[in-house]
Structure formats: C-alpha cells, structure tokens
Amino acid sequence: ESFQDNLFDYIFKTILIGDSGVGKSNLLSRFVWDKFRHDSKPTIGVEFAYSNTQIDEKLIKTQIWDTAGQERFRAFTSSYYRGALGALLVYDITQRPTFNNLAKWLMEIRDYGDSDMVIALVGNKIDLGHSREVSREEGQSFAEKEGLCFMETSALENLNVGEAFLELITQIYKVTS
Ligand code: GDP
Ligand code: MG
C-alpha cells in the first residue's frame, strides 16, 4: 500500500533475532508477502520490510528488520537494535542448540536494546514434528520464566505466523499507547 507515513498513528520498529537457519527470513517473507523459500539466501547488509495493521481504529505501520547473516558472526551493530520496540526471538524446534542459545540472545537484546522492548519467543518449523527436539512445554516454560510471549509456528505451512507478528505488534501497542 502507498499510505504516506503521516497517515499512520504509529510507526513501530521491530527486529528478528535468533540463530542462523531457524527461519527468520522465511517468517518475514511469509508474513509480509505470503512467500516461502526452500533455499537460504544470505545477503549482505540489513534488509527490512513493512506491514500495516489496524488496532482500535489506529493505523500502525510496522517496520520489520531482518538480519542478513550477521548472526553467524554475532556482528550486529547497535543500529540494528536502536529504536526497536519489539523483537521476535526465533529458535528451531528441531535443533536443540538453537534453543540453548536463547539465553545468549536475551543477554544481547538486553545489552543493546531498550529495557522495555517487547520480546516474543517463537519456536519455528512445527511442520517437522517427527524431528522435534524441543517440546512445546519447554518453550512455554522458558518464555514464562523470562516474561516473553510464546508461540510455535511453521513458515512453510503458514501456521501461526500472522498470529505471532500480530501478538508482538499488539503488545507493543499496549505498552506504547
Ligand atoms: P534464517 O537464517 O533464520 O533467516 O532462516 P531462513 O529463513 O533462511 O531458513 C533457513 C532454512 O530453513 C531454509 O532452508 C528454509 O527453507 C527452512 N525453513 C524456514 N522455515 C521453515 C519452516 O517453518 N519449516 C521448514 N520445514 N523449513 C523451514
Ligand atoms: Mg535470514
């Protein structure tokens, strides 16, 4: 859509965080363009996309930043975090190391991000249930312990993807308005 920025009531910056390969870029492209890629396309530099949402008759424009493979080297610059009101912290339910690394990502978010940033934890790839290494309950209890919203998704099968982003946007709206 070609709304001008001044037609929006709110503009939110959000970021995608988590290990390489967990499906961050595909969650973004599923949510914004309803597209899925079977290959992983590491690009150079940061990319972002926009999505428009309406809550309580307010028009919200959400800018979603995606990493371009820097997570492999943990070489995020502070500009990635700067001004971000929310983060989707993603792990892969079929790769336990990506779940074990969540504590490190939370430390980084809390070091570089604003203290009141909303964080939604997302366990992705639930279409691969036969290879599951992290139970739903484990994800849920980690989220509760850390005070995060929690959802399991599949970017491939488009399960809960819109819901996860909308939950994040709604929580940001609640703390912002
Ligand atoms: P990123 O490195 O976190 O951005 O992850 P990508 O979005 O590039 O995805 C990494 C790989 O996982 C790619 O081969 C994707 O096709 C695959 N992938 C992403 N999401 C899903 C999903 O929900 N289910 C399945 N089965 N594969 C996925
Ligand atoms: Mg990516």
TrEMBL record:
<protein>
    <submittedName>
        <fullName>Uncharacterized protein</fullName>
    </submittedName>
</protein>
<comment type="similarity">
    <text>Belongs to the small GTPase superfamily. Rab family.</text>
</comment>
